[in-house]
Amino acid sequence: MSKQEVIICHDLDENLNKAIAQCPHDKLFVLVDEHTRELCIPVLSGSDCIKDAHFICIGAEDVHKNLETLAYVWKELGDKGASRHSLLINLGGGMVTDLGGFAASTFKRGIQYINIPTTLLAMVDASVGGKTGINFNGLKNEIGVFSPAESVLIDADFLKSLDLRNLLSGYAEMLKHGLISTHEHWAELLRFDFNNIDYKALQTLVGKSVQIKENIVEQDPFEKGIRKALNLGHTVGHAFESLALETHHPVLHGYAVAWGIVCELYFSHLKTGFPKDKLRQTILFIKEHYGVMPFDCKQYERLYEFMKHDKKNSAGIINFTLLAEIGNIQINQSASKDEIFEMLDFYRESMGC
After folding, report:
1. Which residues contact 192 (CB under 8 A, 6 or more apart)?
2. Mean per-residue pLDDT for 223-251?
3. What CDD domains does this protein's entry cite (predicted)?
4. Cβ contacts of 25 within 8 Å, gap of 6 or more
5. How many whole angstroms separate alpha carbon 319 and alpha carbon 331?
6. How confident is the model at residue 140 (pLDDT cuts 50, 70, 90)?
7. In this predicted model, what pLDDT tens digit does every residue of 142-196 receive, in sequence order?
8. Which residues pair with 89 in a beta bridge?
9. Distance between CA 157 and CA 12 in Å, rounded?
10. I need a labelling partner for 350 at 20 to 30 A (CA). Which of 11, 35, 145, 327 fits?
11. Residue 88 reports pLDDT greater than 80
């Protein structure tokens, strides 16, 4: 898999012009959702490089990350004359970059695309690393391909349009990156003040977070080994997310990951000796900032069924990414059904569910 260029922007117009110039094309398309059409297109409206672009708008939020929306994007590309030499710019959050990347990677067997993530979650996770896809059959990211963008342009100015909930959603992935990297980075993430947001400091943290992910992806682009480190919190987190969707109470991805981190750090403490004080500090941060997803023991079976569909599993065994210490990653750690139910008990007790 080719390496994508990730650019921390100081002049978005200049960076975008350069990125487009590096991708010769016959037609240019820009994919947005209903939110980014209103909030983010005006930021690019003065850019000559997109003045002749064809815009495609899809519904916002994860409920639209599905086969029907994907087919609509394919149809719009076809109806507006896209060829295999066209270029697609995905301007939006993780749903837009995931779905748009998948649409580009499959239309006419693949066209080039550029990601401009506009949410914190997309900047540090969805838009970087080459994973694309859609939700299918009630399961998160069930269908997709590895296919990196030509460029990813990260401009922290977009973050000023986000509410606190969406900032925190992205920050959960940054917390995960801190846990799998160094004690110092984990500690500085816990110290960040969301009551008085310093966007310059946040951009610095974003740069560190992206670098951590890029280093891991470069070592293991197709998730055969160490890239599974990036799944910390996700085996349980995706199950929480799927249950929330099924019960018509959808939650933001990062919130589900944060709650999943609580569960998987508990397993890390039990199975690989993760320190109790760091477990307690991380849970306290998550409880304070993310609240809790309520569920009862009658829903354990359903959560277990969702975990059985996780892509890290093999031969029916549910696999987790755990930590022996911050930065000491233990992949392919399994757990029995009884242990998983005990973990869910711990979550409810520690979070006051």
Report:
1. 171, 201, 202, 205
2. 94
3. DHQS (cd08195)
4. 85, 86, 87, 112
5. 8
6. confident
7. 999 999 999 999 998 899 889 999 999 999 999 999 999 999 999 999 999 999 9
8. 30, 114
9. 10
10. 327
11. yes
Strand partners, 91: 116
Question: Which residues neighbour 215 within 8 Å (Cβ) at sequence distance 6 or greater?
Answer: none
SS (H, E, C) the chain: CCCCEEEECCCHHHHHHHHHHCCCCCCEEEEEEHHHHHHCHHHHCCCHHHCCCEEEEECCCHHHCCHHHHHHHHHHHHHCCCCCCCEEEEEECHHHHHHHHHHHHHHHHCCEEEEEECCHHHHHHHCCCCECCEEECCEEEEECCECCCCEEEECHHHHHHCCHHHHHHHHHHHHHHHHCCCHHHHHHHHHCCCCCCCHHHHHHHHHHHHHHHHHHHHHCCCCCCHHHHHHCCHHHHHHHHHHHHHCCCCCCHHHHHHHHHHHHHHHHHHHHCCCHHHHHHHHHHHHHHHCCCCCCHHHHHHHHHHHCCCCCCECCECEEEEEEECCEEEEEEECCHHHHHHHHHHHHHHHCC
Report the distance separating Cα 144 and Cα 225, nearest Å: 19
Give the strand pairing for 28-33 and 87-92.
parallel
CATH topology for 164-351 is Dehydroquinate synthase-like, alpha domain (1.20.1090)
5-161 maps to which CATH number?
A: 3.40.50.1970
Nearest CA-CA partner of 47 in 28, 26, 24, 73: 28
Q: Which residues contact 347 (CB under 8 A, 6 or more apart)?
A: 259, 262, 263, 266, 353
The predicted-structure confidence for 296-331, as pLDDT tens digits, reads as follows 999 999 999 999 988 778 777 899 999 999 999 999
For the chain, give every domain's residue range. Answer: 5-161, 164-351
Dump pLDDT digits (tens) for 188-217: 999 999 999 999 899 899 999 999 999 999
346: closest CA among 297, 289, 281, 302?
A: 297
Residue 1 has pLDDT above 60, yes or no: no
